[in-house]
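Q: What structure does this chain adopt?
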Amino acid sequence: MSQSTFDDDDLFGEAADEMRADVEEHLSAAKATLPTADAIWGTDADNVLGALNGLRSALDTGDAVEELRQAKKQYVMGERAGAFEDDEELAAEIEELQALVETLAEAHDQVGDLTGVVPQIKSDLEDAHADDVEEAEA
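A:
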């Protein structure tokens, strides 16, 4: 049977290692749920609306937001407890991933707006050109 230690410093060190592992695990999981570059770059669509719908779907971050949130919670707890030796490295990784997730979410919203506007523009242009044809025939 292995001998366990109940020394506060040893327990704190163990807890810090576990907390860092949790942060890294959540960051990895967040990155794994992000779309691939190919998913947002390529399209099989036959028209602009299809391309926009495909892009909007591709920009979905999945569970990345929740995984990032969990990583950040664990990081904040560990940082405030002074548990991380190199907390700047983890902070930078979290900030970088957060910026990427926010950019993806913003792009997702912008593409969603375009998806709503493009069909109306198409319809308005068809009407405008139909009016020109009718006037030319008159």
